[in-house]
Amino acid sequence: MSVAQRPRMSNDSPTRREFCVHACQAVSLVSVASVLHGCGGSSTSPSDAPPLTTINASVVGGTVSLTIDASSPLNAVGGAALVQTSAGSFLVAQTSTGTFTALTAVCTHEGCIVSGFQSSQYVCPCHGSKYSTSGTVIQGPASTPLRTFATRFVNGVLTITVA
């Protein structure tokens, strides 16, 4: 009987083949765990970005109308807000005097609501994706930009076309 065919006794050391199989299994498990963690981990991962001020608004005829006055977080250039409506949540920023951008607040990575804002960047609280105020991805894991919506600012009223 060859060594490979001989039944192993409990005090025998593992064969080279058994050792390699077990080592590869262990490395595979560690690799899978690190990929899962690097891909996002928990949906409750904290973000250090301050939360956006939330504005509730209505949708009428496919548009959202917001009055921008001195008390609005959108009053100054660089200001941003999370606008919540029955049609969804939107990220709105004043990028230059009288010019606004409106984006979907739904992260393109896993659908979390983007709610942080820091250094003129929107930050997803779930996995840390960062977007510019024009919606382009600055840092992943998201790889697709946020959807944009047409805006119009006249006489202190910002209109966002969502339909």
Summarize this entry quickly.
The chain has 163 residues and is of the alpha+beta class. 14% of the residues lie in helices and 34% in strands.
One letter per element, helices H and strands E, the order comes to HEEEEEEEEEEEE
Number of helical stretches of at least 4 residues: 1
**Strand runs, count:** 12
Q: Which ranges are low-confidence, i.e. pLDDT below 50, for 5 or more consecutive residues?
A: 27-45
Spatial strand arrangement across the major sheet: 1-4-5-6-11-12-3-2
Instruction: Tell me the radius of gyration.
Output: 26 Å
Which whole number gives the mean pLDDT?
81
Terminal CA distance = 79 Å
Global structural class: alpha+beta
Residues in β-strands, percent: 25-35%
Principal-axes geometry comes out as elongated
What proportion of the residues is helical, as a percent range? Answer: 10-25%
